[in-house]
Amino acid sequence: MEYLKIFFMNTALLITVAYLANLIYKHTISHAPETVKKASWVVLSIFAGWITILFGYRLHENAIFDLRFVPLIISTLAFPQPFILIIIGVGIGLTRLIFGMNEAAVAGVLNLSILGFVCAGLSYWVRRTTVKIVGKGLLIILVVNLMNAVNIIVFGVIPDWVYITQIMPITLPAGIVLSMLFSLIIRDFQLDLQRTGQVVRANKLLSAQAEELHKNKIVLEERAKQLMLASQFKSEFLANMSHELRTPLNSIINLSQIIEENDQQLTPEEITEYGTIIHRSGGDLLALINDILDLSKVEAGKLDVVHEELNVSEIPELLALQFTVVARKKGLEFNINLSEDVPQVIHSDPQRVQQILRNLLSNAFKFTMNGFVSLNVRMVERSEGQALKRWVVFDVQDSGIGIAADKHTVIFEAFQQADSSISRKYGGTGLGLSISNDLAKLLGGYITLSSKEEQGSLFSLYLPL
Length: 465
What we know:
The protein is an alpha+beta fold. 66% of the residues lie in helices and 12% in strands. It is built from 12 helices and 9 strands. A 5-stranded mixed sheet has the order 4-6-7-9-8. It has a two-stranded antiparallel sheet with strand order 1-2. Strands 3-5 form a two-stranded antiparallel sheet. Strand 6 and strand 7 (387-398) form a beta hairpin. Helix 2 packs antiparallel against helix 3, helix 8 crosses helix 12 (432-442) and helix 10 runs antiparallel to helix 12 (432-442). It is rod-shaped, with a radius of gyration of 46 Å. 28% of the residues are buried.
């Protein structure tokens, strides 16, 4: 009867240790690395074995009966890894030496060490078999309890006949039954732990999904805002375009009609003047159509550039011929400077380079009422990684109305201007800078902007040497 009392006490102690370990696991090491979890399990199993020995039944001064093998059974099911089970078995066996060095203690060390190796062998079967967890548990409980009884018979200090006839009929069935009971309780703990883990993982997943939905909502709202702005800008562009198209077309139609209906009454000077206006209006109309075609080609990826020799010194001369008259009419000072270190010839597309500079100079003259417009050509070196790259830079500077800092990026986008009222006040479609920026990229370069409101602007075209 004393064996049953002690075995029940051992079971209660093991349940208490398991419950406390479950609480500690939830609140401390549940998120720890796998190696920490395994090490904690080994320490806990050895501690549980030591507790059962501490409160075991002392048959006489040396022999102690307890359920120290139960933590080894649970470990075989929880961590079926041979090395871990051998450490647990040997560790529990060595704790027996704390209660005195004698023949029974040595037998206890041998017993648990052998059981550790037996469980290590069973772990291979546990990992490979398709038997359910209940079947695995029953087989391990039976094998460990029987091996424990055999080891006591072989290595124990109690006479074999006394143990087989008086002790084993009580301790073996009690050990099997209580091992099953404790395994069921631990299984319930494990299921509860799994359910808690599933809830935690589900909550994390829901939180992540909620955060992702929130981010997607922000992205969708931003895209909706961009679409609304794009629609607004395109509407403004169409309004500006209709005005830009209507003005030269009206001039061409009206003046050609006047010439047709009154050719006999008009003087040669009037006909020449009207012809000049018609020619200029036709040129403006052609330039506008070319801008639209260039933009559509760039967006479709169909615009090709031709790299050939470009005489840098000719560009200022060609632009001077075109814009000197404009500067004289507006009363602006127009300066062109070419640095001595600029190479005479570079490889690029002459037509596209001139198109970019014409757009930049046209904007400079358009938005400058008084002061100056200048074109400076210079060399610059910039480090890119380990290499030093050389650039030819065309600076177009003016003393015009300037551009607000928050509009520096916007003005390079198609259909957009720094202020929608600008197109009404100064004219234009807002395509020039967008096309120029795209052309610069196709040429392997880029355009930078430095400007403040009412303090003029500086556009710099960088072309690789």
